[in-house]
Amino acid sequence: MPFPKLFTDNNGGILTPYINQECNELKNYLKLEGYEAAKKALAMPAEQVIDEVTRSNLRGLGGAGFPAGRKWSFIPKDSPKPKYLVINADESEPGTCKDKYVILGAAHVLLEGIIIAARAINAHTCYIYIRGEYVEPAQIMQSAIDEAYEAKILGKNVLGTDYALDVYIHRGAGAYICGEETALLESLEGKRGWPRMKPPFPAIEGLFRSPTIVNNVETIAYVPMIMNKGWEWFAKLGTERNGGYRFYSISGHVNRPGVYELPVGTTLRTMLYDYAGGIRGGKKLKAVIPGGSSSPPLRPEEIDVKMDFDSLAAIGSMLGSAGIIAMDEDTCLLDMLMVTTRFYHHESCGQCTPCREGTGWMDKILNRMLRGGGRLEDVNNMPDIANGIMGNTICPLGDAAAMPVLGYFKKFREEFESHAKTGKCHTGEFTSWKPAGKG
Ligand SMILES: Cc1cc2nc3c(=O)[nH]c(=O)nc-3n(C[C@H](O)[C@H](O)[C@H](O)COP(=O)(O)O)c2cc1C
Ligand code: SF4
Predict the structure, then answer these.
(1) Nearest ligand to the C-alpha of residue 180?
(2) How far is Cα 113 from Cα 118, in angstroms, rounded to an integer?
(3) Could you tell me the distance, in angstroms and rounded to a whole number, from the CA of residue 271 to the centre of ligand 2?
């Protein structure tokens, strides 16, 4: 089966070799010592498995970057309720398209990670929540699950032990909010995907009100390699407190857009210019989004930053899902922010007033500015509205909508002022893009 091209460094990456050797098929994975790590983990006490992953500094790769092993340790051992493992394959962050590669090329690596994680938290049921649009990944994942049952890798006696594990796929219906872990759990329970208040956190009260761990596809796919090669190996590959490699989805105005598996902490400059081939047409870089559409943009003078969770947080942005979007000198940032804000307005579930109304106001103001009707007060009103949303909502979608607005207006204020003052765009004309639906 042909895969979209993946890129990595001279060392060959960690998951890339498995993807390139089509480890969505059991026979291929077994040739690469597939499921040996799970056997090792099944023979260890659960605490030791958790300890190994904690020390490896594997961070959650779905967005928030919470340390994976620590999250697992929050599952109460004395709870009489069943424990659940849920894999988040909703992959809806604009600019991010990495989990698809893991499933398409390495579904068995993910399944092995699932066995190890389930064993660590004592779960006997795992659900993989796959976004509705991912038809082929869902089919490939299901055929890997079927192969694993057939080979007695899943089921009543996992890999010949007395450990039982069932894995089911659940298809989403295409709502961005269903990637948020508590909305995902609601959706999995058959309800509308509305986020829940936290606490209680899912590790205490998650799926069917039972202790649940929600982890991203990529996070879990790295677990077998950590078990095989040891936590020190993984920890050393990254930066302090940010272990290993990860996938960076690079898009926008670069010469070689694609998904790159690189050591955590490679600089953004290296990624853009050495790996992604620099800016298209030899143009100058104007702005870059480092971690998915909700991460505040960086200016060209900031791209020497190491691409890890802590380094980006230190300069007021975030690594998130590592979806990098480069914008060249001809980009209208008002247009870019309009598209981003419109997305969050459209995807707001409507439960919290600041998010429901605030995203709508920001959408309308940007829309008006974009059509040449900007007012000078907009330049202050926009950050005020965004500040009114920040921290005042049930789930982080509100913050995700506010952060880009705050970032663009802080770092590129002059561009928004110029639009408001002149009613014109420096690119020569206003976008022909027309809003539809809400607002
Ligand atoms: C609006 C919103 C959308 C999200 N979408 C995704 C997603 O598509 N995939 C994902 O893994 N995490 C997503 N997350 C993060 C999850 O809530 C959760 O933190 C993550 O799945 C935990 O896995 P990790 O610890 O392995 O990163 C989203 C969060 C928010 C607020
Ligand atoms: S912040 Fe927005 S998306 Fe999240 S619960 Fe509130 S209204 Fe819904």
Answers:
(1) 1
(2) 8
(3) 33
Contact call for residues 179 and 187 (beta carbons, < 8 A): no
**430 closest CA partner among 327, 335, 364:** 335
Distance of CA 207 to the CA centre of its chain: 21
Burial class (CB in 10 A: 0-12, 13-18, 19+), 225: buried
Amino acid making up residue 309: F
Question: Could you list the mean pLDDT of each consecutive 10-residue stretch along the chain, which spans 439 residues?
Answer: 74 95 97 97 97 97 96 95 98 94 97 98 98 96 98 98 98 96 98 97 98 98 97 94 94 96 96 96 97 96 96 96 96 95 97 98 95 93 98 97 97 94 78 46
- Report H helices in 122-212: 135-150, 181-188
How far is C-alpha 204 from the chain's CA centre? Answer: 23
350 alpha carbon, closest ligand: 2
Please name the residue that has the structure tokens 């206003």: 430
Ligand 2: lining residues by beta carbon, under 6 Å: 177, 195, 348-352, 355-356, 393-395, 397-398
Helix (H) or strand (E) holding 85: strand 84-89
* C-alpha–C-alpha distance, residues 11 and 261, integer Å: 10
Using CB distances shorter than 6 Å, the residues near ligand 1 are 60-64, 66, 88, 90-93, 176-177, 179-181, 214-216, 219, 395-397, 400
pLDDT of residue 261: 97
pLDDT at 437: 43
0.85 surpassed by pTM:
yes
**% of the chain beyond a pLDDT of 70:** 96
Please give the Cα distance from 202 to 196 (Å, whole number).
10
Element (H, E) at 41: helix 36-42
CB 334 within 8 A of CB 356: no
Question: Residue 423's pLDDT is what?
Answer: 87
Structure tokens at 309: 């969770």
